[in-house]
Amino acid sequence: MKKILIIHNKYQNIGGEDVAVENEIEILKKYYLVEVLYFKNDKVLTFNQLISFATNNNSESNNLLKHKISSFEPDLVYIHNTWFKASLGIFKILEKLDIKTFIKLHNFRYICTSTLSSAKHLGGEAFCKACGYKRKSLMLLNTYFVESFFKSILVLVYGKKYLQILKKRGINLLVLTDFHKNFIKQIGGFKSDVFVFPNPINLKPKISKTTKEDSILYAGRVSHEKGVDKLIESFLKVKLDTTTLKIVGDGPLLNELKNKYSTNEEIQFLGVLSNKEVLGLIENSIAVVTATRLYEGQPTLLCEASSLGVPSIFPKSGGIEEFFPDNYILSFNQFDYEDLENKLKFISNTSQLEKIGNENKNYIFNYLNEKKLIDSFNMIIDGK
Questions:
Q1: Residue 154 lies in a domain
Q2: What is the span of the domain harbouring residue 65?
Q3: How far apart are CA 295 and CA 307, in angstroms?
Q4: In whole angstroms, what is the distance from residue 88 CA to residue 39 CA?
Q5: For residue 211, what pLDDT is reported?
Q6: Domain annotation covers residue 206
Q7: Contact residues for 367 (Cβ-Cβ < 8 A; gap 6+)
Q8: How confident is the model at residue 205, as a pLDDT?
């Protein structure tokens, strides 16, 4: 049985990627000997962390990796997020030890941080769908982190080095969709093979038999790039009588939106909840929704909703449509908020929700079938 060491740098606020990684680990443990090396960024940036961030090398993380490899002796290393405590120094160690390495790219930010200070980053547009960054007229004033110009400089250094590693080190790349694979081909310069391997999810029967609430659910980062502001505006324009919009999650826009809509009973901000609690909310909702401004890989919320037979409303962007049946009627044109409003109106006036939900459920159970995914993973790691 192959031994796999999985590396993941957890996010400060648990998001879809963290949930996806946990789900994948749970499944892989059924078929391989798996050990996991977790890292988590501290909320306060210390001097030592600042140095390691600036140099893209963390001696503490490097030593933890060396110790884990020495004790576990993995056949291969499978990396998810490295930002930022894991550091990019781990790749040099893996190269020196000549260990077969795979990395899964859950998003598109790896290309953005490396080109942020150049005009080509946004391709002439005012908004980047890969990272959510908005252009400023003077390129020198562009910041990846709105709150910190200095932090943005550090991430530029990190991003340039990270892209160089992905392109030149011969690391095997895993992506979630065909859209992402084609995106990488268009960028060019990658020496590694690129494989499509979507995130498994816990495809389980409905949690309980409960009566549907007249509510629509968004769960994720509450931020500009996720389009939560436009989602709320569109929802309120439609005026869906007794229907409520529930917002789960945290993020830079949360307090602003809570203050703005504090008197609107139709909007409920529920804060950060566990994945189990979110699944319960999904099951009890008539639909889930996202108005993301980004290219998305595989939104966990939407896939979990499909597994529970709950319809999703989402923009036609990135690879989202690959997880839904052809000619899906609840997708809308990205940035066309009138189209979004029409989809919201549709779900409040249709008797087809159960039919749509069941079609989504059948599709996702087939597309993310555990046996098919494991067979695919075996072929990928065996180089077939």
A1: yes
A2: 3-200+369-381
A3: 22
A4: 13
A5: 74
A6: no
A7: 198, 323
A8: 54
C-alpha 117/C-alpha 140 separation (Å) is 7
Out of 134-143, 207-216, 233-242, the most confident range is 233-242
Nearest CA-CA partner of 105 in 121, 82, 77:
82
Is the pLDDT at 3 greater than 80, yes or no? yes
Check residue 27 and report its DSSP letter. H
Alpha helices by DSSP H, listed for the chain, are: 16-28, 47-55, 59-72, 89-96, 109-112, 149-168, 178-187, 228-238, 254-260, 275-284, 300-307, 337-348, 353-367, 370-381
Residue recorded with tokens 């830079």 = 252
Distance CA 37, CA 4 (A): 11
The answer on pLDDT for 7 being more than 90 is: yes
Rounded to the nearest integer, the mean pLDDT of the chain is 89
- The total number of residues shown for the chain amounts to 384
**Count of the separate structural domains present in the chain:** 2
pLDDT in tens, 307-336: 999 999 999 999 999 999 999 999 999 999
Instruction: For residues 240 and 105, state if they share a domain.
Output: no
Q: How far apart are CA 191 and CA 188, in angstroms?
A: 9
Give the pLDDT of residue 146.
Answer: 58
| Dist CA 248 CA 7 (whole Å) | 27
Establish if 317 belongs to a structural domain: yes
The count of other CB atoms within 10 Å of the CB of residue 100 is 15
Together in a domain, 59 and 133:
yes
Residues 214-231, mean pLDDT to the nearest whole number: 95
Q: Is pLDDT of 284 > 60? A: yes
Q: What is the DSSP string of 233-287?
A: HHHHHH--TT-EEEEE---TTHHHHHHHTTT-TTEEEEE---HHHHHHHHHHSSE
> Is 210 contained in some domain?
no
Same structural domain for residues 150 and 287? Answer: no
